[in-house]
């Protein structure tokens, strides 16, 4: 999530990490549910991030 932040940090030479939980579903589901509740407002910016992603794809594929 928040790829626009990751891209901006990378462009400035900073390292960024994304945490990807793995393991049996019964062990990771409580964590994923808690994160979903904590980030319930993340979908409010989804349309903005979608536009930014499409612009980035266009820039990489078409060069503008």
Any overview of this molecule?
It contains three helices and no strands. It has helices spanning 3-11, 25-38, 46-62. The protein is mainly alpha-helical and 64 residues long.
Short descriptors:
64 residues; mainly alpha; 3 helices; elongated
**Globular, elongated, flat, extended or rod-shaped: what is the shape?**
elongated
Number of strands: 0
Q: On the 0-100 scale, what is the average pLDDT?
A: 84
The Rg value, from CA coordinates, equals 15 Å
Kindly report the oligomeric state of this protein: single chain
Number of H/I helices: 3
Uncertain ranges: none
Give me the secondary-structure category.
mainly alpha
Quick gist of this model?
The chain has 64 residues and is mostly helical.
Q: What does the secondary structure layout of this molecule look like, with pairings?
A:
Elements: H1 3-11, H2 25-38, H3 46-62
């Amino acid at each position: 999530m928040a790829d626009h932040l990751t891209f901006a940090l990378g462009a400035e030479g900073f390292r960024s990490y994304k945490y990807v939980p793995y393991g049996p579903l019964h062990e990771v589901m409580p964590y994923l549910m808690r994160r979903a509740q904590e980030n319930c407002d993340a979908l409010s910016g989804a349309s903005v991030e979608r536009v930014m992603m499409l612009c980035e794809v266009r820039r990489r594929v078409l060069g503008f």
